């Protein structure tokens, strides 16, 4: 007999998997953060609507250079049909539930990999699969992350139906390892399903309260949050901008538990692969960091940076969100430590924030020249942003650093437009499913040469303009959700039709 067969669960699973397959096949070339047509369409818009100076500079970008970039884009985002897609998911006792939906949408059973760590559940899954239409499906015994470390290929879709909270042991560590070991394809989809314990059950009360405290703690310093209406969506300025103190913010969270928990899940799934993992990857690798910086781990922060860090939580929201600035009980700190342990690539909660803070400092504009490697300092000396203050934003030196570092630390960026979220009831428990399309944006990072050749390459107007136009899409995608990367790289204003900043939709409630 099939388990997990509630109508709401079936509806969400079917909708999510169908959307995932369509996104990566029929809608594939519209699902990257910067589209193939981005560079060409931005040039066309500026030549028609830009200032006289913008038009003059834009005219330097040759059509032949645009064609080269489009050809390069095609080499990375290759066409795929459903039978090309490879899927990994957590089995549960009835693996055929998910397989049936995937196969109905064109996935080959041979391209589906199921994983189950619980011995009894694994035995039941084998029996269930053998009795189904898919007796040859691959079901592996053990935790999925063990296999992710050794399998020699990437997956297009990874579906993690945890059925536990986001702070439960070995949930976020699985997500971390997917991105740390780069097991999601360059354009790929991660689907997660986390629970929020019912407040109707007395023994859940304290744990649920701490989950909401954790959510509020992480969201408070964000420059923008989702709207406070039912299950969010859109954006609004931060609590700090509205002069809401942390203590009051925690009280607001208690009155809007599902909204805050919903936001926390999505924002952490956004931050983890785009900022937290690549920052740690740089901090952990001495050979990598020495390419850019001197005495990386011995650097002391300058006074201006420390003052900014203390005074402007919105500018350093991830660092603030992983610390605690509001007096809470010991059990909360244990939960926060568990969270940090899981999102640390070496499972070291104590050093996580230090590493993120150090890299964040190096990427800021006020960081000091004494810390730069010889080659990076040479680029800095010859970079004159006032000579290139064209279009909407100025192309600053910190954005060059972000490209250079991103080229080697391999961030995954989330696609806001291609994010879908649901909430539904499973017996007494609310379940929060997030489907996020991730893009490594190699059509930006690999479009530029390496550090030693970067200065000469970026001085070429064709290459610089095509790069900037391609980066515009990433800037508009993350504008309301992250200021840690490509912030202030917009070429066209965020309110121009066809070039708007992207906004999350509400989480959809399934009844």
- Give the biggest beta sheet: 8 strands, mixed
Contiguous helical run count: 21
Shape: globular
Mean pLDDT: 87
Which class do the helix and strand fractions yield? alpha/beta
How large a portion of the residues is in β-strands, by DSSP E? Answer: 5-15%
Distance between the ends: 23 Å
Q: How helical, in percent, are the residues? A: 40-55%
**Model regions low in confidence, pLDDT < 50 over at least 5 residues:** none
Rg from C-alpha positions? 23 Å
**Beta strands, count:** 10
What do you see in this structure?
With 511 residues, the chain is α/β, with parallel strands linked by helices. It has one domain (7-33, 79-510). It has 21 helices and ten strands. The chain has helices spanning 7-24, 38-49, 52-58, 63-76, 96-104, 119-130, 144-148, 172-180, 205-219, 246-255, 257-284, 286-292, 303-311, 317-321, 330-343, 349-363, 374-381, 397-409, 442-445, 451-458, 461-478, and strands spanning 87-90, 112-116, 138-141, 155-164, 184-196, 224-225, 236-237, 413-426, 429-439, 508-510. Strands 3-2-1-4-5-9-8-10 form an eight-stranded mixed beta sheet, sandwiched between helices. A two-stranded antiparallel sheet has the order 6-7. Helix 17 runs parallel beside helix 20 (451-458). The protein starts with 6 loop residues before the first helix and ends with a strand. The relative contact order is 0.14. The model has no long low-confidence stretch (mean pLDDT 87).
Properties at a glance:
511 residues; 8-stranded mixed beta sheet; two-stranded antiparallel sheet; 21 helices
């Amino acid at each position: 007999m099939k388990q997990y067969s509630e109508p709401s669960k079936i509806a969400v699973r079917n909708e999510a998997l169908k959307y995932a397959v369509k996104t990566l096949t029929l809608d594939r070339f519209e699902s990257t953060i910067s589209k193939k047509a981005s560079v060409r369409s931005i040039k066309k818009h500026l030549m028609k609507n830009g200032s006289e100076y913008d038009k003059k500079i834009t005219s330097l970008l040759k059509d032949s250079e645009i064609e080269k970039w489009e050809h390069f884009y095609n080499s990375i985002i290759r066409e795929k049909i459903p039978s090309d897609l490879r899927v990994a998911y957590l089995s549960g006792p009835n693996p055929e539930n998910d397989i049936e939906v995937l196969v109905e949408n064109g996935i080959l059973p041979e391209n589906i990999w199921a994983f189950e760590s619980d011995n009894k559940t694994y035995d039941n899954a084998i029996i269930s699969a053998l009795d189904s239409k898919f007796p040859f499906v691959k079901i592996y015994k053990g935790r999925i992350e063990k296999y992710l470390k050794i399998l020699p290929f990437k997956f297009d879709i990874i579906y993690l139906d945890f059925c536990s909270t986001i702070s439960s042991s070995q949930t976020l560590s699985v997500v971390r390892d997917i991105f740390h070991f780069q097991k999601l394809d360059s354009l790929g989809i991660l689907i997660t399903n986390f629970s929020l314990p019912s407040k109707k059950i007395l023994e859940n009360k304290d744990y649920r309260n701490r989950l909401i405290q954790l959510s509020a703690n992480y969201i408070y310093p964000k420059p923008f949050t989702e709207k406070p209406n039912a299950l969010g969506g859109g954006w609004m300025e931060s609590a700090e901008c509205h002069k809401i103190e942390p203590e009051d913010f925690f009280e607001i969270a208690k009155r809007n538990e599902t909204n805050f928990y919903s936001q926390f899940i999505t924002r952490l799934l956004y931050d983890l692969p785009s900022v937290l993992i690549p920052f740690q990857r740089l901090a952990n690798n001495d050979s990598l960091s020495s390419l850019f910086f001197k005495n990386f781990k011995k650097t002391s922060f300058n006074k201006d940076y420390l003052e900014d860090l203390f005074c402007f939580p919105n500018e350093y929201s991830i660092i603030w969100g992983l610390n605690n600035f509001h007096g809470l009980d010991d059990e909360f700190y244990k939960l926060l430590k568990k969270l940090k342990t899981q999102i640390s690539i070496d499972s070291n909660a104590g050093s996580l924030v230090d590493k993120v803070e150090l890299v964040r400092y190096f990427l800021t504009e006020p960081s000091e020249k004494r810390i730069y490697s010889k080659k990076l300092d040479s680029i800095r000396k010859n970079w004159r942003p006032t000579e290139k203050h064209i279009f909407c934003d100025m192309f600053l030196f910190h954005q060059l650093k972000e490209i250079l570092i991103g080229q080697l630390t391999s961030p995954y960026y989330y696609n806001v437009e291609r994010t879908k979220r649901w909430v539904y009831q499973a017996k007494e428990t609310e379940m929060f499913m997030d489907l996020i399309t991730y893009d490594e944006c190699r059509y930006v990072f690999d479009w530029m040469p390496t550090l030693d050749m970067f200065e000469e390459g970026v001085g070429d107007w064709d290459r610089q303009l095509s790069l900037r136009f391609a980066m515009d899409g990433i800037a508009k995608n993350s504008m309301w959700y992250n200021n840690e990367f490509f912030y202030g790289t917009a070429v066209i204003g965020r309110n121009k039709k066809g070039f708007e900043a992207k906004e999350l939709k509400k989480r959809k409630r399934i009844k």
